[in-house]
Amino acid sequence: MPDENLPRERHSERDEPGAVDSPTLDLELPSESPATQEPTPTSLPRPREGGASRSGRRPASRSNLTPGDELELRVAHVWFVEGSFTRRAINLRYAEAGETKDITDVDLLALDFDGALRATLAIGESKGGTGRNAPSPIDRSMWLRGLRELTRAHRAELTMAQRQSARARRLASDLGVELQAIPDVELREVASGAEALREVGPHAAFVALARDAARQAINADPDLNRAYQYLRGDVWFAEPWAASKRLVATVKLLGSRWAPGLAGSEQDAIRWMLAEAVIAFAVTSTRLAGVVRTTDQARIVGEVADKLAEGAAPMNEMRQLSESIDRYLTSVLDRHNVPRAEIVAVLGAFQPSPPTWSEAFAELLKRLGAAAADARALPRYADLVVTEHVVRRRTVDPAVLGALGFPEPDGQRRLLRAVIAFLEGQAGLPREVVAEIVDRR
């Protein structure tokens, strides 16, 4: 995807008063240039608030957010308003010997889609410390460069609280990292109209607090805790075909725990998790639509079935393994004079099979791929609408939609309805949640 659609840096190359400098390093690494973006309106009506949760409690006070949280939210919100699908505080983990271990938190993540639905990944880090104990921008740039390589991100952006000198910015750029300070963020907020939209969308303080409250509410429940950990981090770095299966299973689990007539923090947590699972499924479906849209239409259903049937090994290897097992079983059963009909009955037992919803999923991917011009904005649109309708239980004003790049979102609305229809029919997405997403006015 073209880099100009990614979060970018705005700053002057001259040294700024109070800027932090760093020693010169002789490194030759690629850097990418920033791009410009058109501003959005800055005077907008506030969405109509839906009130407290069914439990009668709102998420904890904004004072529960640390200065680091606040800075992450500001930068994530700027990225979102500028046109990216964004997430913050993502737990990066890896599996080893059957055990999952934490590596680090990725402060910020952005996905952008081009006209062919190819995804481009950017990551970011925000550091709010000042004074003598503030981290070195070059140290953090070197660390972020390594994280960029690990996550295979195309871009990396580092935000520091203190002003940064032109020299420090150049050194960071040599490491492939865009370095900015809070004054740069403020300029971007003004240019994009993000300040007027501060309490709208997935990076409002209310939503961040709801996510934290969800973690506390389900921490003692192993199944819900695994689902929460997956939604908080693993899903954004998972292989998309595997992620689609895991997300359908997650929606089924959450739907089985959904009890809208009951008040309580666990139900509020399930509400947040269902919203996040729907959003993640819309993003994953968009990525996979880009994969299959160039496939011969007559072969898409079969290819989707094969991909969904795959496990740890590719489909062709799993088929070869299944055929080898069948030959071995046939020879053993023949030697024991087992009737041919009984032998045939057990053949293919190890043949991988796709989930029952694979054909319906193929049709969804075909629909998204055929409407790529609208589908490329579906992740952001779904993020905005599902968050506002389900988590905050309020409508989105048309002026807000326009300011965020959706002046006439009929195409995205139709595609989101298709995603919701699939999840309702194949994963049991609760009818109440469906109604809140598609019927709320």
Characterization of the model:
The protein is α/β, with parallel strands linked by helices and 441 residues long. It has two domains: 3-207, Trna Endonuclease, Chain: A, domain 1 (3-Layer(aba) Sandwich); 221-299 and 354-438, no CATH class. Helix content is 52%, strand content 10%. It has 17 helices and five strands. Strands 1-2-3-4-5 form a five-stranded mixed β-sheet. Helix 7 (240-257) packs antiparallel against helix 8 and helix 12 runs antiparallel to helix 16. The longest helix is centred in the middle third of the chain and has 28 residues, at 265-292. It is globular and about 85 Å long.
CATH 2nd-level architecture of the largest domain: 3-Layer(aba) Sandwich
Gyration radius from CA atoms, angstroms: 24 Å
Main sheet attributes: strand count, strand direction, barrel closure: 5 strands, mixed
Query: How do the strands of the widest beta sheet line up side by side?
Result: 1-2-3-4-5
Kindly provide the name of the CATH class of the largest domain: Alpha Beta
What order do the helices and strands follow?
HEEEHEHEHHHHHHHHHHHHHH
- Please indicate the percent range of residues in DSSP E strands (runs of 2 or more): 5-15%
Q: Alpha-carbon distance between the termini?
A: 34 Å
Query: How many E strands?
Result: 5
What name does the CATH topology of the largest domain carry?
Answer: Trna Endonuclease, Chain: A, domain 1
Helix content: 40-55%
Average pLDDT confidence is 84
Low-pLDDT regions: 1-18, 20-43
Helix and strand content put the structural class at alpha/beta
Tally of DSSP helical segments: 17
Shape call: globular
State the domain count: 2
